[in-house]
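Q: What would this chain look like folded?
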Amino acid sequence: MLLLVGLGNPGSEHKRQRHNVGFMAVDAIAEQHNFQPFKKRFQGELAEGVLSGTKTLLLKPQTYMNLSGKSVGEAAHFYKLPPAQVVVVHDELDLAAGKIRMKTGGGHAGHNGLRSVDAAIGADYRRLRIGIGHPGKDRVLGYVLQNFGAEEHDWLDPLLAAIAAEAGYLARNDDTGFMTKVALRLQPPKTEKTKES
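A: My prediction, written as C-alpha cells:
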C-alpha cells in the first residue's frame, strides 16, 4: 500500500496558491486514475484507488499546513505504514519553478508542513518536491500564499499532468523512473533543423 499525501491549506481562498501545489498534484492523480471521491477521514480528505496494481490512498490534510502531521500520522498509524510507504508532495522554494526532485529523508528546510510530518512519523518518508522558485529571503511568506500567476500555468499545468500520468512509478517505489518519465513528458519536441541550400 502507498499513502500519497499532498500538502496545502484547506478552503477555496487557498486553492490556487503556490503553497497548495501538493493538493493540486494529488487532485490531478485522483482525476487521471479514477480514484474514488474524497471523503473526510483522518482530519483530512482521503481517496482510495490503484496505481500500478498497488492500493493507493491519496490524502489532503485539512489541519492547515503547520499541523499536517496530525492527519498524516493518523492515517499512517491506522494502516501501519512505515515511512518508506509514504510519499509527501510539497512546494519547494529551493528549486527553480517547474523543477521536481524526489528525496527520501533529510531535513525540513524550514517548511512547516514537513516539520509537522517529521514530528508525527519521523523523517524517513519519501518527498516529491515541486519547485516554485525563491522570491528572496524577506518575501517568502507572502510569496507562498499568493496564487500562481497566469504565466506560471504554462509550466504548472503540463507538470501536474505529467506527475499524474507517471504516478504509477511512485507506487512501484521507482523514484528514479518517475523522475525520468516526467522529464521525458516535459521535454519540448525536437524540431528538424532545415538545411540551408
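The chain has seven helices and seven strands.
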